[in-house]
Each structure stands twice: as structure tokens, then as C-alpha cells.
Specification:
Blueprint lengths: L9 H21 L3 H30 L1 H5 L3 H19 L1 H4 L3 H25 L3
Helix pairs in contact: 1-2, 4-6
């Protein structure tokens, strides 16, 4: 004899999700040191995200060793400097986002870094 799974409609599923979020928000709002727990969870998520980016860059560099080795010294310098700039932007996000000018500089430097990486990669893979 098999037991049938309940079929939830979209409205019931959305109501359940909202209720879960409300319970979690109540825990943060009224639990002692709830804000510290949120900060710790956010920090753990950020570290996991950054570790995932680092792992992706490592595997991409291992898969494209020949392409990276055939870059000229100048292109390789631009390529790695752009990744370094992105790492510095991630590290300095709090300071740069503290002002409007810093936010604008952060966006411009991120765009320039991505453009440099894209340009070097396209040139390296064009025959």
C-alpha cells in the first residue's frame, strides 16, 4: 500500500514559505544576540561564496594552462592584474560603498577589470 504525497497548490506553498520566513525573522528580532547569529551566518555564506569563486578560478586555470602559457607577458600581466583588482574590490567593498563617490569608483573599476579580462580572453582565443 503506497501513501500518496499531498499535492500543494501554489498559494499553499507560497503561504508556507512566507510563514517560514516570518518564523526566522521572529527568531532574529526577539532572540538574544539574534543579530550576531545573522552576522555569523552571513559571514559563513560569504566565505563559502568566495571559496567557490576561488575554486572556479583554480579549475579554469588548470583547464586552460596552454592558453594562459601562450599569452604574452603584457597580456598575462593585464589578465592577472584584473583578477587582483576584483579581489581588492571585494575586500574593500564596505569602505568604498560608504560614499557615493566610492560606489561609483567601485563600479567603474569592476567594469574595467571585467572588460580587461574579457578582452585578453577573446584575443587569446581568436585564431
Amino acid at each position: 500500500m503506497t501513501k500518496e504525497q499531498p499535492s500543494y497548490t501554489g498559494i499553499v506553498r507560497n503561504a508556507r514559505n512566507v510563514a517560514i520566513i516570518m518564523v526566522l525573522a521572529l527568531g532574529v528580532a526577539f532572540a538574544p544576540a539574534g543579530g550576531n547569529v545573522v552576522d555569523a551566518v552571513f559571514t559563513a555564506l560569504t566565505m563559502g561564496f568566495l571559496a567557490g569563486i576561488a575554486w572556479m578560478l583554480y579549475t579554469l586555470s588548470r583547464q586552460n594552462q596552454l592558453t594562459l602559457a601562450t599569452l604574452s607577458d603584457g597580456r598575462r600581466t593585464i589578465f592577472y592584474a584584473a583578477f587582483g583588482m576584483i579581489a581588492l574590490l571585494i575586500a574593500g567593498t564596505d569602505k568604498l560603498f560608504a560614499s557615493g563617490g566610492g560606489t561609483l569608483v567601485w563600479i567603474l573599476l569592476l567594469g574595467a577589470s571585467i572588460a580587461a579580462i574579457w578582452r585578453v580572453w577573446i584575443e587569446a582565443n581568436t585564431y
